[in-house]
Amino acid sequence: MKLTNEQFTEVAFIFEKENGNSHSDFEKSIIAESKLTEYKPSELEQIIVNGLNSGIYKTEEERVSGYWSLSKIGNRNLITEFKKWLRTELENENGIAVFQILIGLDRLDEPVFNEKRTGQAVNETELNLRDAKKYLNEK
Q: Model's pTM, two decimal places?
């Protein structure tokens, strides 16, 4: 099953709800209207992981949406997968995907960003690539 970018947003909101995060009326309406609520969060997680691993998400934008959604579930068991994807995206110099994976790992309390950085941004490509390389070399 291949999810659209819109469905990735729905899944992210479902994951956040599962984790007890409060939502705006807009986010609640997205969840209420979603056909994806027929699935358990763990099933949605597996659908995304399987899709990313099988290569059905051809564009960086699609993969970024998948990584972003998965970053909302808070499952530390995904660290191995995130590291594998990080290695691949880094090899292909996909800066936006690298950044999104770093954010996902950071949300799982992985020390991915240099301690001396004062912030993290998608447009800090060189710093993000440097931090990704350093993280992978230490792990």
A: 0.91
What is the Cα–Cα distance from 44 to 66, expressed in whole angstroms?
11
Exposure string of 37-74, with b = 16+ CB inside 10 Å and e = fewer, is bebebeebbebbbebbeeeebeebebbbbbbbbbbbbb
Please check whether residue 114 is in contact with residue 134, taking contact to mean a CB–CB distance below 8 angstroms: yes
CB distance 45 to 70 below 8 Å: yes
User: DSSP state, 20?
Assistant: T
pLDDT in tens, 75-110: 999 999 999 999 999 999 999 999 999 999 999 999
SS3 at position 56: coil
Q: Could you give the CA distance from residue 38 to residue 67 in angstroms, rounded to a whole number?
A: 21
Closest CA to 105 of 90, 91, 93: 90
Amino acid at position 99, single letter: F
| Contact of 48 with 3, CB cutoff 8 Å | yes
